[in-house]
Amino acid sequence: MVRVILDSNFFFVPSKFRIDVFGELNEILGKAEPVVLSTTVEELRRLTTKGTPKMRRQAQAAMEYTGRCETVNVEKDVGESCDDVVLRTAKEWGCAVATNDAKLRKRLRESGVTVVFVRKRSRLEAEGKLRQ
Questions:
Q1: How far is CA 43 from CA 63, 77, 81, 105, in A?
Q2: List of residues 6+ apart from 75 with CB closer than 8 A
Q3: How does DSSP assign 37-105, residue by residue?
Q4: CATH topology assigned to domain 2-127
Q5: Can you give the pTM of this predicted structure?
Q6: How far separated are the first and last CA of the chain, in Å rounded?
Q7: Cβ(8)–Cβ(82) under 8 Å?
Q8: Which of 2, 42, 51, 98 could form a cystine bridge with 10, CB 3.0-4.6 A?
Q9: What pairs with residue 82 in β-bridges?
Q10: CB 13, CB 116: distance < 8 Å
C-alpha cells in the first residue's frame, strides 16, 4: 500500500474536472492509501466560511472528500505554511503527494518527492519515483 498525501487544492479536482481521484490514484500507484493532514482539513474548513458563495460551496464539497481519507494530526511549526507541512511530512514518510499547486509541485520535485497531478484536465499522472 502506497501512502499519498492529498493537498487542499486536490480535493477540488473531482467536482472541477469530473475525475474519480481515488480510483485513479489506485490505478497509477497500485493500492493507494489517501491521507489528509489535519492542517489541510483546517485550511478547507476556513474556506467554507470565507470567500465568495461559490468558493464556500466548492470548499464544502471538497470537505466531503476528506472523509474518504485517513486524517493524520500534524503540528504546524512557527512560520510554517500548509505547503511546508505537506512537504516536510512527505519527506519524513517517503510518500507521494497529490497536488495541482505549481509552486508546491516544483518544491516537491526538487526534494525528490513523487507528485500526482491532473494532466490535460482529464486524468491523473505521477511524476517521480516512489520509495517503497
A1: 10, 15, 10, 18
A2: none
A3: EHHHHHHHHHHTTSS-HHHHHHHHHHHHHHTTSEEE--PPPTT--HHHHHHHHHHHHT-EEE---HHHH
A4: Rossmann fold (3.40.50)
A5: 0.93
A6: 9
A7: yes
A8: 98
A9: none
A10: no
